[in-house]
Amino acid sequence: MNELSNSLISEIEEILRTSRLSVAQQVNSELINAYWNIGRIIVEYEQDSKTRAEYGTQTLKDLSKALTAEFGKGFSVSNIQFMRRFYQAYQIQQTVSVKLNWSHYCELLSISDENKRSFYEKETLNSGWSVRELKRQISTSLFERLLLSDGKANKEAVLSLAQHGIEMSDPADMIKDPYVFEFLGVPENKPVMESDLETALVQQMGLLNNGLKKWLSNEISTAIVGTTAKKLCCNLENHRFP
User: How far apart are the two ends of the chain, measured CA to CA in Å?
Assistant: First the structure.
């Protein structure tokens, strides 16, 4: 009887672990895709007018104010700047990995050198580094030490240190990312069920889509006229977040 009970418990536990991981991955994937699309819309909006590009900082402040009023935390000027830089650095959406969370990308986007950023991104994916481990590797100048290493043996020795990063195999680690709670509008200090996360995800994506439309509509009505306005409105109306 005990063997049967243990088997039953193990089977149920495996189902729950798989379910939690699936929900965590879904939330992270939607957040990454949404922020990439927000960055794309901002960049395209600024590129459509030289005047807008010149007043980019004010545009981000106005957007931050509008989105914060509508959705709460998560849309500070600095975070929106990261979204814009996110799109600029990864203009082909297929090159974005949903295996990394937004905090990972914020750390990576702080690196201006493209080769250096690509190196840390690949090592984070290969070694399963947490955000803390990624920060540690950057602060210890792993990339620079590799470049300065003499001989294949030394380079392999340095890389071997990088292969023991902290794996983020627990879905709770992904869900605990503060950006996820801000994105979903869920209190960070309260327990959350998978069903609550799924509901919050669906609601937030709908609100975010509508909020961006509203903001762009207001901007368009005050900044441009004629065919350009019609073109932007048409593009936004046809856009849907993944």
Answer: 48
Q: What is the average pLDDT across 102-126?
A: 91
**Contact between 35 and 241 (Cβ < 8 Å):** no
C-beta of residue 166 within 8 angstroms of C-beta of residue 136? no
Contact 207, 72 (CB under 8 A): no
Query: How far apart are alpha carbons 181 and 189 in whole angstroms?
Result: 10
**Residue 4 half-sphere exposure, CB side, CA atoms within 13 Å?**
1
- Name the band, by pLDDT with cuts 50, 70 and 90, for residue 79: very high
Q: Which residue has the tokens 């905090």?
A: 103
Q: Quote the pTM value.
A: 0.62
Q: Which amino acid is at 59?
A: T
Name the DSSP class of 94: G
Please name the residue ranges forming H helices in the chain.
2-47, 50-54, 56-71, 77-89, 102-109, 114-127, 131-139, 142-148, 152-162, 171-175, 178-184, 194-223, 227-238
Record the tokens describing residue 134, joined without a space: 């990624």
pLDDT tens-place string over residues 121-131: 988 998 889 99
